[in-house]
Write a structure and sequence with these properties.
alpha+beta; 17% helix; 44% strand
């Protein structure tokens, strides 16, 4: 199994993703997010946040970003770092697709049409998979 295939498998199982971008001062800005409703592939990964968040504001200025996800058991650890570009999605069909009913309490309009509901699309260009004390780099 290739490193990308291993990363795809891990991507579909984990429950926490760490997003990072570069802020206007040139420093990393990092946040943890829950996985999106659908996880089709590593070629495009979607995340939900608030339009009013500092993260969304920084992404609108500089799309360079990374995504990290991992699984940790008592004895072993697997993780994947992806590097690429992130963008704010304006397509209402995509926003509707990634809307979840559990978001209702966080948005006054209680819908994907709320202006503060933000979907981010991450398009990776490369990755690094770690497992069993080995690193494997791969391109996407």
């Amino acid at each position: 199994m290739s490193a990308k295939e291993k990363a795809e498998k891990l991507h579909k199982k984990v429950n926490t993703f760490i997003l990072s971008c570069v802020d206007s001062d040139g420093y990393p800005l990092t946040k943890a997010v829950v996985p999106a409703k659908y996880r089709e592939s590593l070629n495009e990964i979607y995340f939900c946040t608030n339009t009013s968040s500092k993260f969304a504001a920084e992404i609108s200025k500089n799309p360079k970003a990374s995504v990290y996800f991992y699984s940790r058991k008592i004895i072993w650890y697997k993780g994947c770092l992806l590097k690429g570009d992130m963008e704010i999605v304006s397509d209402m069909n995509i926003k509707e697709k990634y809307w979840q009913s559990m978001f209702k309490n966080a948005y006054p309009q209680k819908s994907f049409t709320d202006p503060d509901f933000c979907v981010l699309r991450f398009t990776p260009i490369s990755g690094r998979f770690y497992a069993d004390f080995k690193l494997e780099d791969f391109e996407i």
